[in-house]
Amino acid sequence: MTRAALALGKDLVGLERLTDAQIRAILDTAEPFKEISERPIKKVPVLRGKTIVNLFFEPSTRTRISFEFAEKRLSADTVNIATSASSVVKGETLVDTARNLEAMRIDMVVIRHWASGAAQFLAERIRSNVINAGDGAHEHPTQALLDLLTIRDHRGRIEGLNVCIVGDILHSRVARSNIWGLLKLGANVAVCGPKTLLPLGIESLGVTVFKHIEESMEWADVLNVLRLQLERMQTGYVPSLREYNRVFGVTSARLCELDKELLILHPGPVNRGVEIDSDVVDGPHSVVLQQVTNGVAVRMAVLYLLAGGQPEQAEAAKRADEA
Questions:
Q1: Phi and psi at residue 288, in whole multiples of 5°?
Q2: How far apart are CA 72 and CA 51, in angstroms?
Q3: pTM (2 decimals)?
Q4: Residue 129, SS3?
Q5: DSSP secondary structure string, 275-299?
Q6: How many angstroms separate the CA atoms of 3 and 143, rounded?
Q7: Which site from 84, 136, 148, 167 is most exposed, i.e. has the minimal number of CB atoms within 10 Å?
């Protein structure tokens, strides 16, 4: 595989268009960056002089802070813009906002937006690198990448694993990015959830559909449990939160019936007692906090590669001392 083939290009808007080699290159690049977060001084000068704008049109805690940590640990200059305090509330368009920022000579934009396709729309209209931090119900590529890295850390591989994504698939950008990434890396992928929360024709993506949580847990090596996105729902998708937990909840009782070590992921935030029980989130099967830790390393890798870094040089970049 040549350097040109491994290069991500100008932007990262989703995993659907990436090759398996490009996804592996991001994961491999993230490995040496993990160690930086364990140092007393958590910084290397890889992106010194670069200016990165975090432009979030939706509320976010983990993703926004994770990107900010990644940027600062690579020594980039970071600007956070909350749209509630920007000219967007006065009617300024997304493109005008980005072009005005670009006129200030920024290098990258990390964008989260409520509209599917917003990241691609922006990437086609500005010269700066664009990273999708979640667009509507389309994709959330860096979340899927950190999920892949966490699975690989704990299982040693992704190819051949049975991975089931459980919950609100219909509204989930995390589910879509995970499906693309897992399939490209050779995993067997399934989904499970109420029929009202499964997209029509999802089988055409190459996934298996389970109707019952018990059979999906029995089949899976890895369970990725999604949050019910109540803010995106109208009434009628589920009878009640209690009923959802009764039928599809990942509970300690259901885990106790399994004769295997099931790895459990959750992208957060967790609705405890709804899609997953508190003792499961905090229990030995859960790798939720490792996902958060890996998120910083993955986002460092993406920033580094989009800035022109090469995967094979990441180890040397990790060792770089500040001048």
A1: -60, -45
A2: 10
A3: 0.92
A4: strand
A5: TB-HHHHTSTTB-HHHHHHHHHHHH
A6: 25
A7: 84
